Amino acid sequence: MTPLDYEYLRKLLKERSGLDLSSDKQYLVESRLVPLAHRYGHSGISELVARMKGGGEALIADVVEAMTTNETFFFRDKIPFDHLRETVLPALLQSRAARRSIRIWSAASSTGQEPYSIAMVLKEQAQLLAGWRVEIVATDLSLEVLEKSKSGIYSQFEVQRGLPIQLLVKYFTQTGELWQLNADIRAMVQHRQLNLLQDFSHLGSFDIIFCRNVLIYFDQDTKASIFGRIAKMLEPDGVLALGAAESVVGITSAFKPYPDRRGLYCLSMAPVARAGATPHALRAVASAAR
Ligand SMILES: C[S@@+](CC[C@H](N)C(=O)[O-])C[C@H]1O[C@@H](n2cnc3c(N)ncnc32)[C@H](O)[C@@H]1O
After folding, report:
1. What's the rounded Cα separation, in Å, for the pair 185 and 132?
2. pLDDT of 197-238, one tens digit each?
């Protein structure tokens, strides 16, 4: 790959997916695109780039897709899912009691472990949510990961990463070496292809948005733009969850940290966050519901 090939790919990837490659990531590009070049019958990246310059949206989409990092696992970082169960959900059960509906968006859902972890947390509270409309929308740029997510089929290795054994036994069916999520959990999640660089206001408003481990690949301006647009889609008392290495600090003033709940953020204009909602609060909601 020549320096000019690298510059061409860097610019294209930034425009198409937001991926912000520094000047020293040639090894990453090579490890991802040499196999793709071979699949297309080319000897290496220079030939692939020459073909891309000749046009071909399908090839460009494959290149963009090959450069996405899809690493994920069930209940990744654990804490956001504990907060969901112990703080966010109890608060929503109270504040949404009249309309009895909750909308959640997993904004870079990869192969589905994140939206399905959310679905299992909610399913575990099925008694409290009886009669409620619960929507989980899973979106990603990559069609390949969305297809896998829709299938709900995971390897032994994947179900061993982060998933408590009792949830595996309860919500999955084993077929040979693979495990498939049961249809009722799969049905809780709607999948759509979506590029976060583009307008996403058509998705409507959400009570909870998980946008985790994707913004780390973008530059500051792109992050700020996405935060600004996410802020418009979050209900005034809604909650944003970011990845463990991500933060809004120094990027946007639209969000502030949710008090005492690491990884969670609320709108800066939000009413005072309901810090202190605990399993005890959840039990109180549960007994009121009985
Ligand atoms: C590292 S995974 C994170 C998965 C999950 N949120 C988690 O934290 O485990 C990042 C995902 O972001 C997706 N992605 C990358 N660029 C994107 C973009 N511009 N719009 C939407 N999704 C994108 C990738 O395809 C990938 O599946």
Report:
1. 15
2. 999 999 999 999 999 999 999 999 999 999 999 999 999 999
Tokens standing for 278?
């605990």
Kindly tell me the burial class for residue 33, based on how many C-beta atoms sit within 10 Å of its own C-beta (0-12, 13-18, 19 or more). buried
Is the CB of 128 within 6 Å of ligand 1? no
What is the gyration radius of the CA atoms in the chain, in angstroms? 21
Rounded Cα gap, residues 137 and 135, in angstroms: 6
- SS3 of residue 167 by DSSP: helix
Q: How far apart are CA 267 and CA 289, in angstroms?
A: 29
Cα angle 205, 256, 16; round to 5:
60
Residue with tokens 């179900």: 159
Centre of ligand 1 to C-alpha 17, Å, is: 10
CA of 282 to the centre of ligand 1 (A): 31
The Cα-based distances of 20 to 68, 69, 183, 257 in angstroms read 11, 13, 38, 26
Q: Judge contact between 45 and 5, C-beta under 8 A.
A: yes
pTM for this entry = 0.93
Strands 153-155, 264-267: pairing kind = unpaired
The SS3 call for residue 75 is: coil
Return the ligand 1 atom nearest residue 243 CA.
8
